[in-house]
Amino acid sequence: MISEGKNLIEVRDLRQSFSGQEILRGVNLDIPRGETIVLLGQSGGGKSVFLRHLIGLIPPLSGSIKIDGEEIAHLDERQLEPIRRKIGMLFQDGALFDSMTVFENVAFPLRERGERSEKIVREKVARSLELVSLEGQDKKMPSNLSGGMRKRTALARAIITEPSCILYDEPTAGLDPIVSDTINKLIRRMQSQLKVTSIVVTHDMISTDYIADRVALLREGRIHFDGSLTNLHSSTDPVITDFIEGRSHEID
Amino acid sequence: MTRAFSLYLGQIAFLAGETFSSIFLGRIRWRLVLNQIVEIGFGSQAVVIITGIFTGAVFTAQIFFQFNALNMSTAVGPVVSIALCRELGPVLTGLMVAGRVGAAICAEIGTMKVTEQIDALRALAVNPVDYLVVPRAVAMMISMPLLVGECIFFALTASYYVATRILNVNSVFFLQHMWFYTHTKDMVMALTKGFVFALIVVFVGCLQGLTTSNGAVGVGRSTTEAVVISSLTILMINFFLTMGLNIIFPAGGKF
After folding, report:
1. Which residue, of A140, B19, B116, B144, is most buried by count of CB atoms within 10 Å of its CB?
2. Nearest to residue A159, comparing CAs of A138, A179, A183?
3. Is the CB of A58 inside 8 Å of chain B's CB atoms?
4. Contacts of B29 (CB under 8 A, 6+ apart)
5. Whole-structure pTM value
6. Are B124 and A55 in contact (CB under 8 A)?
7. Closest Cα in chain A, distance from residue B126 (Å)
8. What is the pLDDT of residues A106-154, one digit of tens each?
9. Measured between CB atoms, which of A84, A97, A98 is closest to B125?
């Protein structure tokens, strides 16, 4: 058994269904502190839904989710706030506030947490934007940004409060290879320098090979595979090999 | 049908309860409230003033045509004034604000909902009710009575000009009678109704926005619903308010 306190996140028998369709059919997953785990799976397979449960955006139908030893499955919105302050989340399309500039977006979490000194806010925003290589873009509105820039702004917003855990929903989807590489390196650096626990939902195998300490494959609402990168690549399970090599079994 | 209706009432009550508990616990972002007062209150003035002027003018003309035949033309002032304070002022302001502000609130919050911005707020440990609903509710509760007052003021000014300058009613009699028959209680009734209508518009608009789903189509649908529901509710509630408030502030009489 894993000793108490080693795992930041413990998920037991998590179930969820939307309009009669079962999305998660009993997911079990432990995520130790400081680890980067990549969650693979087909589009529409419930990866993003799973990720949303970890920050309480969706209450589970049944099952248990423990963050830092605390059960969050039955907490209400206000009770979830202290948990959410420990966790950063990068949404798939960025989910930037489009009434605010890039600067205001990135500064938002700081200001909401009571940071009143404009000087500190400006310094932290500048550093955060520099980390995602977006210096000098701070006056733009989100609608004037490219998809990649939106995502990087959202990442800058997610990391500015230095959370102990970051959830990434498709961080490299729709980005060019060079920007993807920047993001991958950033995820790595967050882990090595700040000891951040990361959960990355993706189907980008290049990114997976670069960042993952551990890989889990979600299939038909359950964890089909859970192990190291080496185990993943040496697996002979057809489901896994098809996924890694991108085979569909459709006839031409 | 009944079930959907009670569900909707429950949702509104829940949202209102959360909002008021946030207000009483002091979770008010005053900067956002000021923004919303500019957006909602200040920005609605043109609509409300024009509505007031032309309603006052046309109502005065019609009443005059009827009353003049009975040689009662100086009674136009009090009739117009009381009708405006007790009914037309608050109801018309409510309907115009439901169209302008209710729609804007719903479309903005609805768009935030479908583009995951509401989830982003929640993920950043910011309560969407505190951040989005409370400032709009406070701004509406402050602005709406003022807008109702403004509407009535401009309506009565228009009424005075139409009656005395165009229809040749004696201006001294007109003002004297209007002043004599319009009481503070009529103004209190106008402001009370304005306050209630503010709550209807803001909670229906916010609830429709927060429950939006289905992308751009959903935003369009919920915005339409917000305007329809709040307008109809204003008209229906107005009847019950009139009956109820008439017990506290009975119509007619001197003081």
Report:
1. B144
2. A183
3. no
4. B130, B131, B134, B135
5. 0.89
6. no
7. 7
8. 999 999 988 888 899 999 999 989 888 888 888 899 999 888 888 889 9
9. A84
